[in-house]
């Protein structure tokens, strides 16, 4: 329905943020094996954002794997003056997120994984609410899903094969 634009990483400056880091255990015959799982968000703070997951025996390696995974999953998000075009609800796993545009000067009213994803996307004014599970992984993915379902007026006009005037005036 909407055009999701996947972005190549060649010509943009990306900043990464660590959303969550977990120590995970695998029980084997010889005892417990510990490793680390990292959820990382990368973005240019100008409408491009991606989320990735990395696992390794060391923390630094897990984070770098997460960054590489996030760079493979970059998407362009429609922004209007630092906020989103319309309200959106999305689910992922046990997490449910609700995002709503806000007036200039409001700031990012969100917490945890949602804040990291929204700020990496370059959103400066937004109201956000999460319900259900507060798991970093599910919350980050639900926020990304909500952002990917956003459509700006130009996309809607194109989809309906009408002028931009008709989108607003019916």
Question: Would you summarize the structure shown here?
Answer:
The protein is 29% helix and 35% strand.
How can the largest sheet be summarized? 4 strands, antiparallel
From the alpha-carbon coordinates, what is the Rg to the nearest angstrom? 18 Å
The proportion of strand residues reads 35-45%
The tally of beta strands, per DSSP, is 8
Element order, helices and strands? EEEHEEEEHEHHH
Describe the global form: elongated
The end-to-end span amounts to 20 Å
Stretches where pLDDT is under 50 for at least 5 consecutive residues are: none
Structural class: alpha+beta
Strand order of the biggest β-sheet: 1-2-3-4
Helix content: 25-40%
- Average pLDDT works out at 89
* Count of alpha/pi helices: 5
